[in-house]
Amino acid sequence: MARVKRGTTKLKHRKNVLAQTKGYRGRLSTKERAANEALAHAGIHAFNDRRKKKGDFRRLWTVQLNAAARAHGYSYSKLIDALNKKEIAVNRKMLAEIAEHHPDTFKRIVEQVA
Fold this sequence. Notes:
The structure is a single chain. This protein is 74% helix and 0% strand. The protein is mostly helical and 114 residues long. It has one domain: c-terminal domain of poly(a) binding protein (Orthogonal Bundle). α1 packs parallel to α2 and α2 packs across α4. The longest helix has 39 residues. The radius of gyration is 26 Å and the shape is rod-shaped. 11% of the residues are buried.
């Protein structure tokens, strides 16, 4: 079997890893072993946080809707319950957007469920 020299391949891998960890603190950006571990952890957090982001935004919309609803004499839960009973199908994202940027339209929606 022929001898395999890994010089260029290994150097390319090391250069790639260190390029990805550029800006990390301390030895995480300069030492290959630490950089590999830092990249592995960063990938795990990135994967998990893409899923967490969905819940974070839903919580944000809830807070925004609660603030807007209280200005019209409702709480968040009472408003959502009233919308469901009247069968007005507007998702929380759109409601929060309407409440923030078009308060007069949001007021009309609230008056419809009253």
